[in-house]
């Protein structure tokens, strides 16, 4: 597992210059500060955006589809639970210890050369609005926990009554093929944009 962690960290570090170039180009009204402090990163802060006019600050957690280089997926997986030391842990979406205001979802990551990322898409998701939208659908943290508890031995896709699985989203249980056994809420990026909780930066 350590070697995969190191490989992912290396990929993240190589992706950073591309992301920063996009922020400079498309977020001109903001100053941005990249966070290197591990404690802040554990709180879900990779980036701090400061509005140059108002001084308002926004805490951003970058989430990149680094397992899918040179692929374009229409969805993103929001972590609800994972396993560590044989115990189920709270995933980052509903984790109250996370201070994240926005997720920067990095998708369609392309690499023309082995050590160089050349293009990607970035979709900003307002975390509070997303959680509020899910609550409006009846998909509160408590409700999702009950559904997951009733299907804990499942592996694969599970449809939800309030989400169209083809156009909106579904639950996915990775209980057999991943060490951390994550349980994710998989949502279509275009759906998030359509309901007003996300905007495509690039």
Largest sheet features = 6 strands, mixed
- Total strand count, please? 11
**How big a fraction of the residues is strand?**
25-35%
Tell me roughly what share of residues is in helical segments.
Answer: 25-40%
Strand order of the largest sheet: 1-2-3-6-7-11
Number of helices, counting only DSSP H or I runs of 4 residues or more: 5
Q: How many structurally independent domains? A: 1
Uncertain runs are none
The outline comes out as globular
What is the H-and-E element order? HEHEEEEEEHHEEEHE
**By helix and strand content, what is the structural category?**
alpha+beta
Distance between the termini: 32 Å
Q: Kindly provide the radius of gyration, computed on alpha-carbon positions and rounded to a whole number of angstroms.
A: 17 Å
Q: Can you give the mean pLDDT?
A: 94
Please tell me about this protein's structure.
It is globular, with a radius of gyration of 17 Å. The protein has one domain (2-200). A 6-stranded mixed sheet has the order 1-2-3-6-7-11. The longest helix has 25 residues, at 2-26. The chain has helices at 2-26, 38-42, 127-136, 141-149, 189-194, and strands spanning 30-34, 47-51, 57-64, 75-84, 87-90, 102-110, 119-126, 156-158, 169-173, 183-188, 198-200. It starts with a helix and ends with a strand. It contains 5 helices and 11 strands, in the order αβαββββββααβββαβ. With 202 residues, it is an alpha+beta fold.
